[in-house]
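Minutes, project check-in
Item: structure for the 172-residue chain
Input as provided by the requester:
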Amino acid sequence: MNDDFIVMAKRGRMVMFAIFSLVFVAAGILILLTPFKETMWPAVVGILAIIVFGFCFLYYVIVLIKSEPAVIVTKEGIVDQSSYIKAGLVCWEEIEAIEFLNFSGQTYLGIFTFDRELIINRSNGMKKLFNILNKGLLPSQVNIPVNNLACSAEDLVYAIGQRWEAAMKKES
């Protein structure tokens, strides 16, 4: 019997993010098509908007097509697949604390690990860079946006508490 607590991403929210990303790509194209003679900054902004939000659009479309869980709470730990810089499996014995954090009007489930570099050391390339930048924004090593999850914060905390407690009892 599988005792995993599986949480999907809110599909409506992912669709909304994809649409917003597409709107910003269109805005970048419009900026590029507008003639600016004195400076090249608008062209740079337009190109950056197309590249950054183009990748965001592709990411959200892929997430919608794959339809994989955003978070899985297992007897081994928490599997974070909630964003591009997903942490993957964070084992219970690696977790020091879990708490809710607020940043820019958004609530995150913050997972603090004993090793402050754990997630950065597990990632590479662009994800490593984003994890380093993320470390400067929030004190926790894993940050799961609660508003994007198709479950209540209470249900998530209860599932985590149950499995974490069971894992700690096994270790004793």
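Outcome recorded: DSSP finds five helices and seven strands in the chain.
No further action items on this chain.
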